Amino acid sequence: MMDVIVAGGGPTGMMLAGELRLHGVRVLVLERDAEPTGQVRSLGLHVRSIEVLAQRGLLERFLATGRRYQLGGYFAAIDKPWPERMDTAHGYILGIPQPATERLLAEHAAELGAEVRRGCEVVGLSQDDDGVTVELADGTQMRSRYLVGCDGGRSTVRKLLGVDFPGEPARTETLLGEMEVTTPPEEIAAVVAEIRKTQKWFGLGPSGEGLYRVVVPAAGVAEDRSVPPTLAEFQERLRVFAGTDFGVHSPRWLSRFGDATRLAERYRVGRVLLAGDAAHVHPPLGGQGLNLGIQDAFNLGWKLAAEVAGWAPESLLDSYHLERHRVAADVLDNTRAQAELMSTTPGAQAVRRLLTELMDFEEVNRYLIEKITAIGVRYDLGEGPAPLGRRLRDIPLKRGSLYELTHAGRGLLLDQTGRLSVAGWADRVDHVVDASEELDVPAALLRPDGHVAWVGEDQRDLLDHLPRWFGAPVN
């Protein structure tokens, strides 16, 4: 019997598999598609996801494939400069297509020993006190101690669990694809710039290898969005908005997405959990979807590994829902707000002009971008000093930097006093005595996901907090 089966081999599932393997969990990833998708639905990684990669020593391989940007326009396509003084050592967006992100995370999971089986579709499940039985389309049955559904917005796992998925259905739809064009680039750029003065859902620009990425509003909402649009649909809609179809031809892939906004009522039912798009769907405004899923996996991985290992405190695994459900709810709200701001109605345009003026204030601009990039997330860990519940940026230490100490995915006590101890938890928490001019507390206890669980300098107070996140001490 496996420890954990992950249904879905996209970025969320592969990130989770890697996190679980860091702790020796036996993990099997089941992916329905026989081959990785070539569709480029996501174009980049936000600051918090970049930090996550740095925390696990993966960032250099991603930087070698992607490209750094410091561009504004991430909140409702309002074009403002990249904010100054962001609370991060990685103040940029990493432009990298989704297939590359998925491939690199899959390679990392495989290097750590995760097993991946493609062409395996989950069609049934049942659970008992000891584990979960998973049924595949070919009739095969498998057992694992836990199952995590990372199988997308139409999640089979979520449906089999009977978890409600409340929210709003799609009211509009957008066509998305990559194809060749015959119109000269300078003419395309001029036409697109004029259209985007009022229609922010429209886009057409080079994506490499002689292809153009085309984004254009559809005529309505398809009855079955799993059926891809045709090239003729793209041509017709381009002519509606631009008066020309730009000579589009030879598509590499064609797809569609809607503005449905839904959030799973629960992220956990017994031994089955949900992560990524299986738990939440929303319009791709601000490019948050893939990033939100990766960050779900980063929060869940160490908690589920602790449960498998037997040292998790009683409430640890449930804290995954409590923390990430609230984060997703906030993302859904900010995408709803962005969608309203991108409407062409007079009222929405008036609000958009007002917010555009407000974003000239540095604090407003930074607040909104930190929301989009998820570095403003604070988990509710109770009252305490400012760092409590937040992740620490990659601060420099006298010997290296903070994130260099987090590659193994363990807890970390960063101690500037030299007087503290994690005796009894040394198998789960590293104790590093070092100092940083950028850390204004005597000591900080970091969870494996980098969020601060305790600050202070009193040993007895530390001993009261260690069991909440790292279980009972080993004598």
Explain the overall architecture.
Strands 1, 2, 6, 7, 8, 9, 16 and 17 form an 8-stranded mixed sheet that branches. Strands 12-13-11-14 form a 4-stranded antiparallel sheet. Strands 22-21-23-24 form a 4-stranded mixed sheet, with helices on one face. α1 packs parallel to α4. α1 (11-22) links the parallel β1 (2-7) and β2 (27-31). Helices cover 32% and strands 23% of the residues. It has helices spanning 11-22, 47-55, 59-63, 98-111, 156-161, 185-195, 231-242, 289-309, 318-341, 346-358, 362-372, 459-470; strands at 2-7, 27-31, 44-45, 67-69, 93-95, 115-118, 122-127, 132-136, 141-149, 167-168, 173-180, 203-208, 211-217, 249-258, 261-263, 268-269, 272-274, 280-281, 396-397, 400-401, 411-415, 429-433, 443-446, 452-455. With 475 residues, the protein is of the alpha+beta class. It has 3 domains: 2-167 and 262-372, FAD/NAD(P)-binding domain (3-Layer(bba) Sandwich); 173-258, Alpha-Beta Plaits (2-Layer Sandwich), CATH 3.30.70; 396-470, Glutaredoxin. The radius of gyration is 23 Å and the shape is globular. The protein is built from 12 helices and 24 strands. The model has no long low-confidence stretch (mean pLDDT 94).
Structure characteristics:
475 residues; 4-stranded antiparallel sheet; 3 domains; Glutaredoxin; globular; FAD/NAD(P)-binding domain; alpha+beta; 8-stranded mixed sheet; Alpha-Beta Plaits
CATH architecture of the largest domain: 3-Layer(bba) Sandwich
Percent helix range: 25-40%
Q: Give the helix tally.
A: 12
Q: What would the CATH topology of the largest domain be?
A: FAD/NAD(P)-binding domain
- Overall geometry comes to globular
CATH superfamily of the largest domain: FAD/NAD(P)-binding domain
